[in-house]
């Protein structure tokens, strides 16, 4: 057991040196379980160092096999669209006489990463490129189960001066999520449109989306890149802010011009490979229930918005407006592999370290 824990900690520390996660607004706990209390964007390294029981000799930490012995399956999601797609399943679980899952909602991927690598979580919804990084850094010990969120990034401005990507030239862009999907998506969109991200624009990275909105309001001639549902939140608080560009559409326009079927992918559901191998029926059931939850969320907007509000992800009012633009989806099997592998290839061409140094092998993709 001590050897296993030393190995897990080593893998987490290796990841800390190679990955900087994306940021998120303040964290809130779900009714079903208590999430991390940290609401600040932290590096993976600091998340690992602050994880209770990190020393190998602490025998109180759960082993990777703990969920296979009849305990609840431990599932984590990020505060945003990845958690929004799960709310029906979370609600059903909370009202079940025999709950099968222990859900947690976190503010940042940095809080999820060490827990997943060390075996304190079984399943998680994480940024798509982080899944690839984890797979590579743990030598195949993380597997992707499904794509759960397509592009959710939007360029917003206070005014009406940005109507094309070219209009961003010479502007200051406030954004959060450096080192993760937002940074790679923004660089790709700019560079493919002939705009040098380092010379032709000024990108100011912030730790939280709320800081981007504040900077947008106080800086002349500035724009911001915000994900849903936070873009909608900004619009409801400031009537002068509008959505200027849908980055998913811009990405797909570029892909079509290049003859590629790729699309912008934000989030995926992953699991520890050993958990999948030890619990094939539980994984299959989870994916079926997850798919049903996504269908409910995408088809029952008002009811789903109420659940999103109940779990303190965003208010029901904001969720009702934001859900149609959150691109919540459920892609598994060959559809998942085709879309995700194409997307990761685009990131790899831009920066190999964005996917962990190399493209994942076929065993990265869960086949069912």
Overview of this structure, please?
The protein contains 15 helices and 11 strands. It has helices at 2-18, 44-49, 81-84, 87-94, 109-117, 128-137, 181-192, 209-218, 230-237, 247-257, 273-278, 280-299, 301-310, 316-322, 333-350; strands at residues 73-78, 101-106, 123-127, 142-150, 153-158, 172-176, 202-206, 222-227, 241-246, 265-272, 328-331. It has a 6-stranded mixed beta sheet, sandwiched between helices. Helix 7 crosses helix 10 (247-257), helix 9 crosses helix 14 (316-322) and helix 12 crosses helix 13. The longest helix has 20 residues, at 280-299. The two termini are 30 Å apart.
Estimate the helix proportion, in percent: 40-55%
Q: Kindly report the oligomeric state of this protein.
A: single chain
Largest sheet: 6 strands, mixed
Q: Strand fraction band?
A: 15-25%
Say how many strands there are: 11
Shape: globular
Q: What is the H/E order?
A: HHEHHEHEHEEEHEHEHEHEHHHHEH
Q: Gyration radius, to the nearest Å? A: 20 Å
End-to-end CA span = 30 Å
Derived structural class: alpha/beta
Mean pLDDT: 81
- By DSSP (H or I, 4+ residues per run), the number of helices equals 15
**Main sheet: strand order:** 2-1-3-10-4-11
Residue ranges: pLDDT <50 for 5 or more in a row? 1-68
